Amino acid sequence: MSKKIHALITGASAGLGDAYARQLASRCDSMTVVARRGERLEALAGALEGQCKVEILEADLATVEGQARVVEAIRQGPAIDLLVNNAGYSTIGPYATSDLDDELGMLRLHNEATMVLTRAALPAMIEQGSGAVINVASVAGLVSTPNVAVYGATKAFLVSFTRALRQELKEQGVRVQCLCPGYTRSEIHSRETMANFDVNIVPEKLWMEADDVVAQSLAAISDDADQWLLVSGDHNRKVVAREMDALRADLHYPS
User: Fold this and answer.
1) 151 is catalytic
2) Are 75 and 180 in contact (CB under 8 A)?
3) Does the residue 134 lie in any domain?
4) Most buried of the four, 7, 17, 78, 142, by CB within 10 Å?
5) Please, are residues 236 and 182 in contact by the beta-carbon 8 Å criterion?
6) What is the mean pLDDT of the chain?
């Protein structure tokens, strides 16, 4: 990303989304930040004042109405050079006793919204022969984890979706990346849907800072380092490697 660009970042009010906005500000002519909490976006825009033009878009991407608002902004605004599909949340607990509304809302936010916004942004990218899409998934999308069954499944969808997009778009100048972070310090763990999660049970060495994860992501999707699947952190890469070995051992080929 050597030229000044226009970026659209979802889930920009905290965590990885906030970090993407702050790190991209100096590289952007303009930026659209999307989240449910407008007051957080106002504060972010104030912090970025003088670095780039920031458009605030308050929308709940787990709803059809929120998705439509962002699609309309994409169609009416400047062509997007970088789309960051980051908005998300998690639930925890056995699926059999989970709140189905929370689980379905997570599916709509992680998967449906990503599909809808990516579909809206891609035609202009293809026409100009450049652009990039970052889909924020999780190590949970590569490693089966009890008590986060739907969260992991939605993230696995993003891995498969991004891989297929890369194959479709690699000859058209459009880059894609699926970012798979592990434990990252953010507000996702303090949501009501994560009330049963004790952050203290996770060893300190496993936590990563949002700024570090985002820096790795942006470096990997730069013009000279096209890497479609990025697992942040050495420990997480080892965990994924062990999971791939276990999956191969589980494969059954009928005779």
Assistant:
1) yes
2) no
3) yes
4) 17
5) yes
6) 90
Residue 109: is it exposed, middle or buried by C-beta count within 10 angstroms (0-12/13-18/19+)?
A: buried
State the total domains in the chain: 1
Token output for 132: 């990039």
Structure tokens at 78: 């400047």
Residue 153 lies in a domain: yes
Residue 255 covered by a domain = no
- CATH code where residue 82 lies: 3.40.50.720
* Residue 98 to residue 250: CA distance in whole angstroms: 27
Query: How far, in Å, CA of 99 to CA of 31, rounded?
Result: 35
53-64: per-residue pLDDT in tens?
Answer: 999 999 999 999
The two three-digit tokens of residue 139, written as one number: 């190590």
Considering the candidates 20, 89, 95, 151, report the single residue annotated as catalytic: 151
Q: Cα–Cα distance between 148 and 188 in angstroms, integer?
A: 13
